[in-house]
Amino acid sequence: MTRAATITGWLFTIGLISVGISHVYGLNLTAKDETGTIGPLPVTVKCDYVVETGEILFSITMSRERATEPGFTDIAVFRPPTSSSLYDASVTQKFKDRTTLILSGDIYSGSTSVRFDRVECEDEAAYKCIAAYQTASNTPASEEAEMNLLLLAEPLRPIITLSPPTSTGYTEGQQVEFRCQGAVGKPAGDFLWFRYRGNTFTDITSLARLNAPYPSSGTCTSERISQLTLTVSRLDNGMIIRCAANHTTLKTPTGSDKCNSTCQQTDTITVFYTFSDSDPDVSSIPSEGTHTVGDTVTLNCYAVTNPPATYTWQKEGEDNSTSPGDELRLSNIQIEDYGTYTCLATNVVGGVTYNASKSFNINVVATTTSPPTTTATSTQRPSPGSTDAVKPGPPEVLYERPYTTLQCGASVPHEYGVIRNDNTQGMCTSQSTEVLDERPYTTLQHGASVLHEYGVIRNDTTQGTCTSQSKEVLYERPYTTLQRGASVPHEYGIIRNDTTQGTCTSQSTEVLDERPYTTLQHGASVLREYGVIRNDTTQGTCTSQSKDGPIYEDCLTN
């Protein structure tokens, strides 16, 4: 043989080896690895054969070797010449019931197979086919081919437990542990966590702890435990927590899909919580803070709590009068309905009672008329004692009597407010229903006034000092001096002068009339529709917000 022929032979042999053919002459037997899934999905292990010319195939025996076994054990024999397939005598009936032997082809080429109609863990093994045949030279021979069956297992539905367990709910700020445990398949998968609040969900897997897999008893799969700890808040009231197995055999859970056979979720979780810093919220219908006599005003109180809060309304100064319910309806309101209304909300969480309150101020004014086109007028005052003037009928007098005389610094509740005397030289009044302190107020010059936190302090007489329940002086300056019968809007009300003897003021923001007011005895007062008329000075100064009084003639001088 020449050197060139020898080299050519070597190259041919190397080429055969490189494509996985282990022989140059004789029967060709091949097999390949398979992957199956534990369960009802079939998988087949198969050997393909090709008989060369002049050869005779007698049989192909299939055997297997599990990882726990010392060697291969026969499971079936296939005889192509007689088209027969037989289980080995050592094979159990259970194995026969869930497998099928398949022989296809003829004595020249074909395949022998074992199909697993239901795959179990024990089926994962190394499988080998041994072909017995006779060569073209009438010599007995055999050929082998090996393969592996690798199995996968899908995870099962996990179990979720909550600690501490509850049948009612949890309290805001409480820590709750969610424990997810179950078979995670083969190879071992893991768990994904999702939190559902209303129509939105969030992947919270990063907040969980995942333990190492451990063998599942009686199977070839693994189990795992994942723990999720949350501090629940009011935002979690009504939430659902889901634990979903994640595995290579499954589509990765996204949280938007339905909970299937490899997922578990909690029932709706209740979280009890009390008031936030902004609770309760108080609103009114109409929403304006100032209302007119005869209006209907509805106050509403609402707090976001679980369980829902209970509500009670109380008007400032009326401690013994309360109204239950979240709504307070004031029909046909009157001047005396003005004031501060407080909603007290109560909520019980975990056996502890919580209270929160918020107040709402209601101002009530009488029906107003449009202001006159002329901002100041001059009214002729009839001569004292004259009877020529036609006087309109007087309005209804609700009370008319001198104010109570008090010692300096003393105070006393009155039907329409609190009367105080902080000066031994005169009488002072206030519309408050509660005495805030017992000290003299700021002393003002005659005609001066000052706005305090709780009202206006003014001195309309040289005989004494008038006070209000204020604690802080905001401004202190004399009122504007006006001609008799004139009026002018002021920063804090209307300043009027209906007498040549002094200066009168009103808290109204518009001019109601341009005429003098009712004449009162010194120290007397009368409540009218638009305010209180009183004479606190022998100098002739009277004030009121009324527009229906008789023509003013003169303030008494004694």
What key phrases describe this protein's structure?
six-stranded mixed β-sheet, Immunoglobulin-like, five-stranded antiparallel β-sheet, disordered C terminus, 2 helices, single chain, 4 domains, mainly beta, disordered N terminus, 558 residues
Q: What does the radius of gyration come to?
A: 51 Å
DSSP, total strands: 41
Q: Could you list the spans in which at least 5 consecutive residues all have pLDDT below 50? A: 1-24, 370-408, 414-419, 421-446, 457-482, 497-520, 537-558
Number of domains: 4
Instruction: Strand order, main sheet: write it out.
Output: 2-10-9-4-5-6
Q: Biggest sheet, open or closed, and with what strands and sense?
A: 6 strands, mixed
Mean pLDDT: 74
Which class do the helix and strand fractions yield? mainly beta
Task: Summarize the model shown.
The chain contains two helices and 41 strands. With 558 residues, it is mainly beta.
Question: How would you portray this structure in words?
Answer:
It is rod-shaped and about 130 Å long. It folds into four domains: 22-152, Immunoglobulins (Immunoglobulin-like, Sandwich), CATH 2.60.40; 159-272, Immunoglobulin-like (Sandwich); 281-365, Immunoglobulin-like (Sandwich); 410-543, no CATH class. It starts with a helix and ends in a 15-residue tail after the last strand. The strands form eleven sheets. A six-stranded mixed β-sheet has the order 2-10-9-4-5-6, with no helix packed on it. Strands 11, 13, 16, 17 and 18 form a five-stranded antiparallel β-sheet that branches. It has a five-stranded mixed β-sheet with strand order 23-29-28-25-26, with no helix packed on it. It contains two helices and 41 strands. It is mostly beta strands and 558 residues long.
